[in-house]
Write a structure and sequence with these properties.
It contains 6 helices and 15 strands. By secondary structure, the protein is of the alpha+beta class. The relative contact order is 0.11.
Length: about 250
């Protein structure tokens, strides 16, 4: 099978090779009218026998000349230069201006990715925190710390009367451990006071602001670390004999 195409200007038919078609993305120049066109548009594959028959018919027809519109010949293509078949490769260069908008779109997508996954990037690459902080200062956003409660645990806790002089005030102390290798947000404490039958009498939620003392400037629980906390509660007239303590993220 041989590839042939037709010029849209003068309708001359030419034989082409795959190398000629792909060298300039299909752009060729007609050897008859000099028009540049894309050879892929009217490209068809025909048997070599048909081309040889058409060439012999054209040669025997009255008024045949080498410059006729039939630009296929019954010989091997490698025996002739490209312009023998009426085709000259176009020298038109492909514009590269499309690279600029594509690069801008790529940067936009990268910015959207960083904005959407800034917390995950902070976890996976802690060294990028200064760059992420600068980005959030510019975009007026924050890096939300992880809230993986299953990676936190209460190592110990204790609830007792704070002072004999104030029997209604109890002191709650606990040690919270972060088993994750990355920092996490400090959780809240859910304290439930129970009676002798372990039925709940009252409950209260203590946030990080409640259980951290005023001189402690900490809002993050570091990776693979623990923190000791303490808070106070006035139980009033409640006859509580037990308690339950849980970690939660409100």
């Amino acid at each position: 099978m041989t590839l042939v195409t037709r010029c849209p200007g003068c309708h001359a038919v030419f034989r082409l090779t795959g190398i000629q078609l792909h060298s300039c993305n299909g752009d060729v120049r007609c050897g008859q009218c000099r028009q540049v066109f894309n050879g892929f548009v009217a490209l068809i594959a025909v048997p070599e026998a048909c081309i040889q028959s058409a060439a012999r018919s054209a040669e025997s027809a009255p008024g045949y000349s080498e410059s006729g519109n039939v630009a296929v010949v019954p010989v091997a293509e490698s025996s002739f230069p490209a312009d023998h078949f009426g085709v000259q490769l176009s020298t038109r260069k492909t514009s590269r201006w499309w690279l600029i908008p594509n690069a801008l779109l790529l940067l936009l997508l990268l910015g959207q990715f960083v904005h959407a996954y800034r917390t995950e990037i902070f976890i996976a690459f802690p060294a990028f925190q200064p760059a992420l902080d600068s980005y959030c200062d510019l975009m007026q956003c924050e890096i939300d710390l992880p809230h993986h409660l299953h990676l936190l645990s209460l190592e110990s806790s204790d609830l007792r009367v704070s002072s004999p002089a104030e029997p209604d005030v109890v002191a709650l102390s606990a040690i919270i451990r972060n088993h994750a290798p990355f920092p996490q947000a400090l959780p809240a404490l859910l304290l439930t006071l129970t009676d002798s039958d372990e039925k709940p009498l009252a409950s209260r939620i203590f946030t990080a602001k409640d259980y951290l003392d005023s001189v402690t400037d900490q809002s993050v629980l570091g990776g693979d670390s623990e923190i000791q906390v303490q808070c106070f509660l006035n139980t009033g007239s409640l006859d509580a004999v037990g308690y339950k303590l849980e970690l939660i993220y409100p």
